[in-house]
């Protein structure tokens, strides 16, 4: 009853503020906020982000390099920021879905700290880690405050003529979704456009595909992140850690309680490639689920050591198999992988909740970087991952 009353109160308040009623779907997947639109007012716009990154680079006295990694489908520059000179490589991306902006601000804050701080913590990270951050990898979607990018199927066929006669990809949005009308400006869920084979070229026989199958690298946004990943592999041998920052539904609960989830973590995005009959057996020697579990525990422990605002951290549901996500693809390629899914930022949560969510992401990221830099992450018992409280969907 308490849970029902809490949910009803949130719904009523949300309705009064923005005439939005949230309805849950039964098949939530990582990075899929299923409770309507997210309010991005007060978060960094594309232009504000560009200015912030330039200022951070200027103030860093050479510690941070900001570069153009490529351009979105509508010609906006996608920026990457690099800090540190260590042999351990960490790649962090945010806002692959344009209406999920909390991680972008958290990444900017993290870069500002690592670029300007002379603290022992910052210096240790810079000495041991090469951090590459892409704070807003889908700027077209961010400008429209929606999930999907801004790209038509005809544009895909222009780039890949071999797809002229096939049915469009399953993740192509042409309808109203989460309150956004894609009928006039279609787009793709970029986080279903990855393939474990980093050299994959789209083939007609692989379309339209499905959520349980790999993507195709048909969007420029996914290709840019893929190319960053490959360039780091070529330079350093491997990408040790990949972290992707997302939002999820605001009305998930900690299993067995009436407490709303603040953030969920996960290190599992595909089924074990060493299991009998796996479609990805060729990646079994690279896949390192234990390391992904250790990284997630490092984030969880850092949040548990914080003050009272860092609470209700859960493990995202583990019954998923999504090789078309960046996390699934890069995990199969040997990276320790971490998903951050903060509670949905809606009008009913206010500025206080916005600040809490940003700080939660920051604290979790600091926990990962500190543990990797110090080497403590390798001493964590991977089985502790299974002790993280579960999310009740």
From TrEMBL:
<feature type="domain" description="Peptidase M14">
    <location>
        <begin position="42"/>
        <end position="361"/>
    </location>
</feature>
<feature type="signal peptide">
    <location>
        <begin position="1"/>
        <end position="23"/>
    </location>
</feature>
<dbReference type="Pfam" id="PF00246">
    <property type="entry name" value="Peptidase_M14"/>
</dbReference>
<keyword id="KW-0645">Protease</keyword>
<protein>
    <submittedName>
        <fullName>Zinc carboxypeptidase</fullName>
    </submittedName>
</protein>
<dbReference type="GO" id="GO:0008270">
    <property type="term" value="F:zinc ion binding"/>
</dbReference>
<keyword id="KW-0121">Carboxypeptidase</keyword>
<feature type="active site" description="Proton donor/acceptor">
    <location>
        <position position="341"/>
    </location>
</feature>
<dbReference type="GO" id="GO:0004181">
    <property type="term" value="F:metallocarboxypeptidase activity"/>
</dbReference>
<keyword id="KW-0378">Hydrolase</keyword>
<keyword id="KW-0482">Metalloprotease</keyword>
<dbReference type="GO" id="GO:0005615">
    <property type="term" value="C:extracellular space"/>
</dbReference>
<keyword id="KW-0862">Zinc</keyword>
<dbReference type="InterPro" id="IPR000834">
    <property type="entry name" value="Peptidase_M14"/>
</dbReference>
<dbReference type="GO" id="GO:0006508">
    <property type="term" value="P:proteolysis"/>
</dbReference>
<keyword id="KW-0732">Signal</keyword>
<comment type="similarity">
    <text>Belongs to the peptidase M14 family.</text>
</comment>
């Amino acid at each position: 009853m308490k849970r029902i009353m809490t949910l009803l109160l949130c719904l009523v308040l949300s309705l009064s503020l923005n005439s939005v009623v949230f309805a849950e779907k039964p098949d939530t997947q990582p990075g899929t906020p299923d409770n309507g639109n997210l309010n991005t007012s007060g978060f960094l716009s594309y232009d504000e982000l560009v200015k912030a990154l330039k200022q951070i680079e200027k103030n860093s006295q050479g510690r941070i390099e900001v570069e153009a990694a490529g351009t979105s489908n509508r010609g906006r520059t996608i920026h990457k920021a690099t800090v540190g000179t260590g042999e351990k490589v960490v790649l962090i991306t945010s806002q692959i879905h344009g209406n999920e902006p909390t991680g972008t601000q958290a990444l900017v804050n993290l870069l500002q700290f690592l670029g300007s701080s002379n603290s022992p913590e910052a210096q240790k990270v810079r000495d041991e880690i090469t951090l590459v951050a892409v704070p807003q990898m889908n700027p077209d979607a961010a400008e429209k405050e929606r999930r999907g990018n801004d790209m038509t199927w005809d544009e895909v066929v222009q780039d890949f003529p071999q797809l002229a006669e096939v049915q469009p990809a399953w993740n192509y949005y042409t309808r109203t979704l989460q309150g956004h009308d894609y009928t006039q400006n279609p787009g793709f869920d970029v986080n279903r456009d990855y393939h474990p084979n980093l050299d994959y070229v789209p083939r007609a026989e692989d379309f339209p595909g499905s959520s349980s199958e790999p993507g195709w690298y048909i969007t420029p946004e996914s290709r840019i992140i893929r190319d960053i990943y490959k360039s780091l592999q070529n330079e350093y041998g491997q990408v040790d850690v990949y972290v992707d920052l997302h939002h999820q539904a605001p009305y998930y609960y900690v299993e067995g309680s009436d407490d709303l989830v603040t953030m969920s973590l996960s290190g599992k995005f595909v089924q074990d490639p060493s299991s009998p009959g796996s479609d990805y057996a060729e990646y079994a020697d690279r896949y390192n689920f234990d390391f992904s579990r250790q990284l997630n525990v490092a984030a969880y422990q850092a949040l548990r050591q914080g003050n009272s605002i860092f609470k209700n951290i859960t493990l995202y549901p583990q019954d998923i198999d999504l090789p078309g996500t960046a996390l699934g693809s890069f995990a199969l390629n040997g990276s320790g992988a971490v998903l951050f899914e903060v509670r949905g930022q809606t009008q009913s949560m206010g500025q206080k909740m916005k600040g809490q969510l940003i700080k939660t992401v920051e604290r979790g990221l600091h926990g990962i970087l500190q543990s990797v830099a110090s080497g403590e992450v390798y001493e964590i018992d991977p089985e502790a991952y299974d002790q993280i409280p579960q999310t009740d969907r």
